[in-house]
Amino acid sequence: MTGGTGRSRTGPALRALRAAVTARPVRLPVRQRAVALLLLCLALAAAPLPAAAAPAARYSAADGAPAVHLSRKEAGKGGTLTVTGRGWRPKALLTLLICGQNMIGGTNSCANGDGRAVTTDAHGAFRKRLPVAEPPKPCPCVVHVATVTGAASEADAAFTVAGHPVAPLPAQAAGGRLTVLAQPRLAGSSGLLTWFGAPAQRRLTLTVGNLGSAPARDPVFRVGTSHGVFAPQWEEQQWRGTIPAGKKAEVTLPVELPAGAHGDYLVSLGYGGKVLAEQPWGVGRPWGVTLFWVLLCVVVPTAVFRIGMALVDRVRPRRTGGRGHPARQTPATGRARAAGTRPRIRNRTARKGSTAGPGTPGDGAALPWFTPDTAPSTTTSTERPTSKGSA
Tell me: domain 62-162, CATH 3.30.1490.20, correct? Predict the structure, then answer.
């Protein structure tokens, strides 16, 4: 009975589906039409759905290339937007900036003070909230994302700052559109004069390609050097040569630092109002200058002291007599000493006021010195020596 009931219920439904396929109209009751419509919905629900492409559709870049997506396409100053990206190098440090004029003039056209930094995860993806600020240049604006360290990589996403002025993009300079194809390098070494403070010199060598439709003849590059957080000091240098459209060439430009410069410097190359490449440069300290100042601090005080002592010895008056100085020598004394005789010595006198008798020490009378011929002999003495043991 169940089988018969099943056939009675499913038979009209199958006939309705077959009629829909063969486009042959079949007149069915209302109940059978409802059953056929229900079966058709179940068949469509059981069919496999196409792969969801919503997350992938956000990124227009090719696989492996860095890409950026914005949660909002337009916002006013003071608002925020969420910037997400993928395809970047894992654990890479990135900067997020809002720039005007499609960043044609480099970071000079960006709101650098309101930028943000973010580090990608192990899969090269990131998500960061960015405050909306007005760039120094008019729109069209972009959100510029670039790596800070390691291999250079960047991506832009169009964005509109509500209420910010809009102006046409500046005309591209004629003479081709150049770009850097290889990592620049600094060639050269420092000499002995650089050790004593002479300007350090290098040669910036890089490979440049012409992506434009016109050849670039004698292009004028801008070479800048910066130290620490200071802005680079630019200098225009013209390269002699022609880079045909779609071709590449090796460009070498001289770079020089001020005298006595040392520390970590950054060499930048610009063309057409845009920075093409940056290369770090570590300059050693000029120890020869330090050695010179150390010697100067030692030699100069010593020389001044010696000169001062010589002047003092020259202007100091000489004393002819007094304590500690020899008496002036007379001609007679000089002749006597030259003949080998000793000068005559005056007799010593006793102290005044002594009470001792004559012939005793301390007598006020002067006692003459005995000479060898007047000295008393021991044999003529009247006194006999006392014998041992006599009283």
Answer: no
